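Please check both lines for our workbook:

___
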Amino acid sequence: LHSFPTRRSSDLEIFLTPQYGDLDERVLDALKYSDFQSKDRQLYRDALIQGVAFEVVYTDEWGEQNFVSLPATEMIPVYNDTMDGTLRAVIRIYSTQYSALETAYKVEVYGEDSVKYYDSVSGYNSIFFRDEKPYFYGQCPVVVFSLNPENTSVFDPILSLQDAFNLAMSD
């Protein structure tokens, strides 16, 4: 099951009070709303291919908690420098094609209390702050799903075998 980042353990107590009803029912409703089975399938697929996958928890336009899997090739996790290696932030960098001649680059920084948005239109020569949206999670709202410590794909060990087989068959 997914767990949404929370600020403190007392936040959980809010859900357990009678005015919010049964916690299990609320969690199941949130998972059904977000179509977690389909999204988890994508997350696992990305992790198998890339070795690591990223899922961002957010509040959608209707005020509901939701999550989305984002490409690992766009994500840079930033950990603290202590032994526990706590995730402090994630930087997302991606491009948007405005026209055949113009490509814009977007940067999103998911921190502990907000996400900051930056734009760049002429490569990475200059980046401009665009917006900041606060959130209540109290921690970075990105889940890093890693298959192994090396973040290698499940296909990496067999690629050389497949290449050798293909070479042998072509001779």
User: Anything to note?
Assistant: Residues 1 and 38 are 13 Å apart (CA to CA). Residues 1-18 have pLDDT under 50 and may be disordered. The longest helix spans residues 36-50. Helices lie at 9-16, 23-33, 36-50, 156-170.
